[in-house]
Amino acid sequence: MLEVGCGEGQLARALARAGHSVTGIDPQAPEGPIFRRTRIEEFSDPGLFDHVVAILSLHHVEDFGRTLAKMADLLRVGGTLVVVEFALDRIDEATARWALDSLPAAASSEGHSWLDRFCRGERGAAEWDERGFHGSRRMRNELGRRFAERHFEWVPYLYPELVEGVSEADELAAIESGMINATGFRYVGTGRALAEP
User: Fold this and answer.
1) Is 123 helix (H, G, I), strand (E, B) or coil?
2) Furthest CA-CA distance within the chain
3) Quick check: is 16 in a domain?
4) 8 within a domain of the structure (yes/no)
5) pLDDT bucket at 94, cuts 50 / 70 / 90
6) What are phi and psi of 50, to 5 degrees?
7) Is the entire prediction scored with pTM above 0.70?
8) How many CA atoms lie within 13 A of 154 on its CB side?
9) pLDDT tens digits along 59-88
10) Mean of all residue pLDDT scores within the chain
C-alpha cells in the first residue's frame, strides 16, 4: 500500500503493525523504514502498489492532473485508489452561516481558524484558488479520467472545526435536510490498464 501525504504517519504505522506492506510518502514524513520524504511527483518505486490512499492530501497539490497520472502509474491494474477530500467550493452562503453559528471563539493569540476566515469572506474564493486549492468538480472529473469509479459519497467535513457538541451526526442531519452542502467526499476507484495523460 502507498499512502500519499502520510503526514505524521499514524495510518501507515497502524497498517504496518497489522502486517501490511506500507510505504508512506510526504515532504515532512517521519523517520523510519516505511517512510520516504518526497512529494508524489518525485516518488518512484520499482514495483506497483495494490492500494493507493490519499487522505486530505490532494486538494492543494500543484498540478492535480500530473499527480493523479503519477498515482495511476503506481497502481496495478485492478488495484484500489481511496481518496478522502474536502470541497471548499461547496461552502455556499447557507453552509457558511451554519458553520459560523457553531465556530468556537478564537483565542486572541491564535487568531481565527481557516474556516472562520473563509466563511466571513476575509479571503475570497479567488484567493483560495490562487493558493492552489482545487475544486471538487475538477477533482472528480480528473479522477474519472484516470480511474474507474467504484464508489463516491458526499460526507460531513466541518464538524471537527466546530464547538464541542457539534457532531458528525449533527452535520449529516443538516446535510440530509438540505440546510447545508456536504463539503467532504470519499472516493474509491480502480486502476485501469491504460491511464489517460
Assistant:
1) coil
2) 54
3) no
4) no
5) very high
6) -75, -30
7) yes
8) 16
9) 878 888 899 999 999 999 999 999 999 998
10) 89
What is the rounded CA–CA span in Å between residue 131 and residue 142?
Answer: 19
> Which range of residues forms the domain containing residue 114?
48-191
Cell numbers found for residue 2: 502507498
Residue 104 banded pLDDT, cuts 50, 70, 90: confident
Does 170 map to a domain?
yes
Amino acid at site 92: D
In a domain, 160, yes or no: yes
- CATH code (residue 102): 3.40.50.150
| pLDDT value at residue 196 | 46
Spatial CA neighbour of 55 closest among 88, 21, 25: 25
Buried b or exposed e, range 8-29, using 16+ CB within 10 angstroms: ebebbbebbeeeeebbbbbeeb
